[in-house]
Amino acid sequence: MHALLLRGIGAVAVATVMLLPVAAQADTFQVQMAGSSFIFNGQENMDIDLMINPGDTVEWLWVEGPHNVVSGFPGEPGEGDLFNSGDPTDVPGTTFEFTFNDPGTFGYHCEVHEDFGMISQVTVVPEPASALLLCFGAFVFRSRRR
Ligand SMILES: [Cu+2]
Prior knowledge:
Number of strands: 9
CATH architecture: Sandwich
Order of helices and strands: HEEEEEEEEEH
CATH superfamily: Cupredoxins -  blue copper proteins
Radius of gyration: 21 Å
Largest sheet: 5 strands, mixed
Shape: elongated
Distance between the termini: 16 Å
CATH class: Mainly Beta
Bound molecules: copper (II) ion
C-alpha cells in the first residue's frame, strides 16, 4: 500500500515536470497605434480588455501617426519607470515591446495623444494551470521528504 502510494506520487511528479513547459509557454500580443488610439481586438484605448499571463509580451506597432508608449497613467508617480519607448516617432512599422513578469494592472499611454484619451492598460493574471502545478509540486516534494 505504501509502495503503491509512492509510485503514484512518482507518476504525478513526472506528469508535473512534463506539463510545466506547456504552462510556461509565453505569448505575444500586438497592440496597434493609429490616429489617437491604441487598438487591440477591435477595441480602443480604455475599452481594450487585454489579459495576459506573467512572461507574456505586448508589442506595440506604429501603424499611422506620431506616437510613443510610456508606462503608467498620465501624471501617475513613477510614470515611465517600467517602460518607455522614448521620443515619439511616426515611422510606420516601428515596434516596441515589453515582457510583463509580475501580476497586476499596468496602465500606459502615448504622450502625444494623452489629452485625446490615448491611454490603456494591461492586466497580468497568474496562469491557473501553472499555479495549480506549483501547488501540486510542493505537495509531492513535502510528501517525499516524510
Ligand atoms: Cu499617440
